[in-house]
Amino acid sequence: MIRHVVPILFHPAYEAALPEGHRFPMRKYGRLAEVLTARGLVPCGFLRPEPADADLIALAHDRAYVDAVFAAAVSPDVERTIGFHVDEGVAARSRASSGGTLAAARLALAHGLAGSAAGGSHHARRDGGRGFCIFNDVAVAALALRREGAVGRVLIVDLDVHQGDGTADCLSGEPDLFTLSIHAERNYPIPKVPGDLDIGLSDGLDDAGYRAVLEARLPSLIDTIAPDLIFYNAGVDPHRDDRLGRLSLTDEGLAARDRFVIGQARSRGIPLVSVIGGGYDTDVDALAGRHALVFEAMAALA
């Protein structure tokens, strides 16, 4: 298989320190960088983003919440909703992740494809974080690019196993920033925040069933919207072994999904930027390998 060099963003701050035994697999970010290097996907090294500043992040979030995160002074109630303590390292990680998604999006607009080895924090809503998500990096990036005039219409293709409630909330009232979420209907969050197009799947759906839904809905949606840029949340938690998923995709099914989404963008000449989204497994090596699939697909289709 011929591979092309696709720009990939990584920052050491993507991996923050969490208490031993925490159920969020923070180590996956650093391990993913190691896997991408070992597989030859970054022959010239990673590009390092500038962390997002408060003004940038406030495009998508209430300023009081943004300032609280930057000061590592988030209330205990909000921290419980997020799922971990927001210390200086977690705050730095969230800034770097938002900056990485925006930088990757700009590179995608210039080169056709790019990705960040983090991002996809789609549960963070305008008023605050939720579900292991501090800042909604995709919403921040989409709003920043639209403000700059770099894009008019954007399509967010969110294939994480959980519905993108935060992205729907942050981009409500933004008809040119369209959110598609295909997720396990009975999974978190409950209740959901309606997006532009939400497709809830039944528990246990396998590779073939998932692919059938994707093929039936995505191509016509892209043609209808004709976006200037696609953000792709390539969450790997639809995998059958994921601790927080309810679907039954295999590694091969995830890889085929990624190739299909990227191929749809490439065949239309639409730039695409990928973020890694969710994935929860105690086997961090296996988890990092699943997250690497989308970068392999971009390299093959570039």
From TrEMBL:
Keyword Hydrolase: yes
Keyword Magnesium: no
Annotated family: Belongs to the histone deacetylase family.
Gene Ontology biological process terms in this record: epigenetic regulation of gene expression
Histone deacetylase domain ranges (all copies): 22-284
Keywords tagged on the record: Hydrolase
Protein name per UniProt: Histone deacetylase
